[in-house]
Amino acid sequence: RPEVSIRPTEVCFPPAMDSQGPFLNQRALCSLLGAARLCQLAMGCAVVAMVTHSAGFSGSQGVFCMAAWCFCFGMTVVVFFLDTTRLYSCLPVSWENLTVTCAAFATLLFVTASVVYPLFFVQSDCPYAGCQVRNFRIAVTVCSILGALAYGAEVVLCRARPGQAVVGYMATVSGLLKVVQGFVACVIFGALANRSEYFRYVATIYCVVVYAFCFVLTVLVVAMTVCRRTKAVCCMSFQRFVVVCTLLEVLLYLSASVVWPVFCFDTKYGSPWRPSSCPQGRCPWDSKLVVAVFSFVNFGLYLADLIYSQRSRFVSP
């Protein structure tokens, strides 16, 4: 039987990566997108270095900020390396959808850390360790804000323009809203886990089930898009499937946005005002308020998603 020899470069690399072509993706280096990612790397490295060197962090708030910065920095390193070397062609994913999803998620993490860190660690007066620590914390905040702007710039550069043929759902406004919805759901879950006492009533347990179910549906849509499973779902097109899921999520969040405040703040079941004896940071009333506020936020996001999904059209990769 005749033997067929296959060059290693023909296994998963595009033709431009063979021995006769350029080894690096010049577009990933010499473009606005490349400049945005280089800025992300610079700001992420600066933040992590200053926090570990002198700025410092403590408590659950500091751990969250440090984890967010480290995660985003590591994710950007991987994305930049794979894009520059074109090794992403070996991955069974839609690279455009994956990168814009990562950029949108990193933007939300950096924005949150840019608010939480100065709120808990930056003071007008110099702490006991001296003004040097305060100055480093101010510099960390500035670099974190610049990093958030850099990630936001990548989202803007990759976002679909009106009238443009879009390859990938995550580049549309509806796709980006999915990332925000998932992030807001994570905030809700964090508040639920922080002494929210949701288990006291069947109605509040129902709200938790709604939050979890909608979160799973959102993650499923994003995962299907990134993994190129957008041909057909349950005998319907992927776009119709997304619209059906979004409509269901709107109805469920509408019910939860009504039920949760009633069973948490009505005088029959709870208290409409914050108890004076409630400890700061460990008050169930505060967690209930956070869940109520972000329930309305996510309901608005799902409603906007439903409106935009009627007008967006994309080409399945």
TrEMBL record:
<keyword id="KW-0472">Membrane</keyword>
<feature type="transmembrane region" description="Helical">
    <location>
        <begin position="136"/>
        <end position="157"/>
    </location>
</feature>
<feature type="transmembrane region" description="Helical">
    <location>
        <begin position="238"/>
        <end position="263"/>
    </location>
</feature>
<keyword id="KW-0677">Repeat</keyword>
<feature type="domain" description="MARVEL">
    <location>
        <begin position="28"/>
        <end position="163"/>
    </location>
</feature>
<feature type="transmembrane region" description="Helical">
    <location>
        <begin position="61"/>
        <end position="82"/>
    </location>
</feature>
<keyword id="KW-0812">Transmembrane</keyword>
<feature type="transmembrane region" description="Helical">
    <location>
        <begin position="289"/>
        <end position="308"/>
    </location>
</feature>
<dbReference type="InterPro" id="IPR047123">
    <property type="entry name" value="MYADM-like"/>
</dbReference>
<dbReference type="GO" id="GO:0016020">
    <property type="term" value="C:membrane"/>
</dbReference>
<comment type="similarity">
    <text>Belongs to the MAL family.</text>
</comment>
<protein>
    <recommendedName>
        <fullName>Myeloid-associated differentiation marker-like protein 2</fullName>
    </recommendedName>
</protein>
<dbReference type="InterPro" id="IPR008253">
    <property type="entry name" value="Marvel"/>
</dbReference>
<feature type="transmembrane region" description="Helical">
    <location>
        <begin position="198"/>
        <end position="226"/>
    </location>
</feature>
<feature type="domain" description="MARVEL">
    <location>
        <begin position="169"/>
        <end position="314"/>
    </location>
</feature>
<feature type="transmembrane region" description="Helical">
    <location>
        <begin position="35"/>
        <end position="55"/>
    </location>
</feature>
<feature type="transmembrane region" description="Helical">
    <location>
        <begin position="169"/>
        <end position="192"/>
    </location>
</feature>
<feature type="transmembrane region" description="Helical">
    <location>
        <begin position="94"/>
        <end position="116"/>
    </location>
</feature>
<dbReference type="Pfam" id="PF01284">
    <property type="entry name" value="MARVEL"/>
</dbReference>
<keyword id="KW-1133">Transmembrane helix</keyword>
